[in-house]
Fold each of these.
Amino acid sequence: MSPSGPGPRATQPEGRDAEPVWELVRRVRKLRGLTQYQLADRLVELSRNSSVSRDEVARWERGKRVPGPYWRQWLSLALDVPSDQLAAAVRYGRTVR
């Protein structure tokens, strides 16, 4: 996550309220121009763990499941989102579920 990394940072727009993890993942994925398939492929590539699929990404984005700590670390890298921002979105999402 260096300053010379690709694309704009995924910080929340100014004045935007906290958002649950499912909205954060969907918003940033689209901001990065990725499909759910492409994000799943990127996660497999980074983690070398083929247990994630487009279906799992879709579940995260619908709020049906919350990515655990293992996948959050890879989402942080794949989407260029600070890990503390993802953790905060998970905490917030659990309060509004």
Note: Helices lie at 21-31, 36-47, 54-62, 69-79, 83-96.
Amino acid sequence: MEIAVVGGGLMGHGIALVLALAGHGVRLTDTRPETRAAVPGLMASALATLREAGAAPEGWDEARLSQAVRIEADLAATVAGAGLVIEAITENPEAKRALFAELDRLCGPETILASNTSYLDVFPLMPESRQTRALVMHWYTPPYIIDLVDVVPGPGTDPAVIAAIRDLVLGLGQKPVVLKRFVSGYIANRIQQAISAEVFHLLDEGYASPHEVDEAIIHGLSLRIPILGHLAKADFTGLELTQRALANGSYAPPPQRDRSETLDALCAEGRTGVMAGKGYFDWGGRDPADLFRERDRKLLALKAAMAGIGRMEGT
């Protein structure tokens, strides 16, 4: 299938790489010339990391990748004849609305429109005539390593379209999770938001340091999750204990907040994360590209180990 990706930033270039490695012809565009210029290098670097880990299909190199993913300056040329168009632009409702209106004009009636939005309900932003062939197709970063893809119908999406996209994701070697209807953040992001709310509470109220929070997550919470998930872990613990914990009120969620004092202080100091060299942690002045490569190598090693270990599954 010919697939168009609109938006070449953090997610768009990674999505294009995933699609190309699975054998799809891909065309990618971005409104910013500097982003279009950076995309080939970003994809080549990610491919090199995959090859190092033995996680890339045979026969792929930078030259082949440059043939498989065509970078276009013009939106019309990008989407012409595409069976699927994936929107991966900024999380701005009006920008998305304008893009969908333009795609409606440029695309044929059979083209499927998918949005990689993380939180926005994009369906009201799409023309009514496109609703039956519109859906959310949401990846996680980096999409060439993290296999989860949320597949989410709108209120008018044809079930056959959802089935076709689910099959496409499976064909990429990734894991589609099909929701019954839209909810902002889907499943993984909503759980992550709940974790973040508790973490902000622990930090802001002075219960623990960032280091201790991450130690607890890595050495306590995370070790079991890859094998059991959350609900299978509850089965192994025993559901009666879960009942008692709920009845005893042993956990009270933190109050809803729209800011974190510790987070605000870090941002005010310019400690905005890896790209700035510091965030919750000091990253030692290392090149962010090196840090991203190290992250990717470790994720790939963990992914390979987990494939060998397997998970426990019920029915």
Note: DSSP finds twelve helices and eight strands in the chain.
Amino acid sequence: MRTYDVAPLYRSTVGFDRLFDLLAQADRVDPTTTWPPYNIEKIADDQYRITMAVAGFASDEIELTQHSTTLLVSGQRKGADERQYLHRGIAGRSFRQTFNLADHVKVTGANLANGLLTVELKREVPEALKPRRIAIGGNQSAAGQDNAPAQVEDQAEAA
């Protein structure tokens, strides 16, 4: 197992603590979190899709919960299965899968069809947080004295 030292990055970054925590958390992934199998797709610059193979689960047995930047997908079978199996290859065990989402990523929809749960995600950055161009004022001084350049011109004409 290899560990990465991100301490040098702290000298030149501000506010990336959550990212560094996620990197450290990636080393501690529990092998049981790989079931059920899933895909994560990037559909567009700001759209994503998670597809999970949840064969045998009904839509009322699966719960999706988004809290801040965490998406929790859990499945719990309802009712006891009284069948007698000679071979049971389709897993019906309960599951709990957590996905860490970037800031401003929201779930826009979910669908269960043919044993596949599809969760649609979209990054919706508020207008106030989008980059904006700042105009540079040519006649205003840093101290806020709007008439300072005009006074210099008046003094030059008087001389």
Note: Residues 144-156 have pLDDT under 50 and may be disordered.
Amino acid sequence: MKTKIEEIDQLIKETLTEEEAKFYDDLEEQSVFAMIAGLYKGKNLWFTVVMHIVNLVALGFLIYSAMQAFKTESTKELILWTSGFFVCFATMCMIKIYAWLQIHRNALQRELKRLELQVSSLSSKISEEV
């Protein structure tokens, strides 16, 4: 199956101009680290940075809440510190889920660009034949 995909990619590259072929190569599948680095590019860079700062603050308060929960002797305080722990944990989970959704959005956008490039290539080839 992989050879068929490679053959299709080669056929597409042959129909593209040199500039389009370079752009097509840039749209290849990325590693996980490249996808994470992609979060720090574009218009939402500031939001990603703020999101990670909030995540670190939540981690700090989570650790502090856990330590205070083990030190307390009152049931009421134990419930409050444990609640703080779980709120911080939920906040961190939601931030991580949002980051993964952004990574998947970027991957989907890259695939759509590849598809647009292929459609453009085919339409120019059809117009040349007609």
Note: The chain has five helices and no strands.
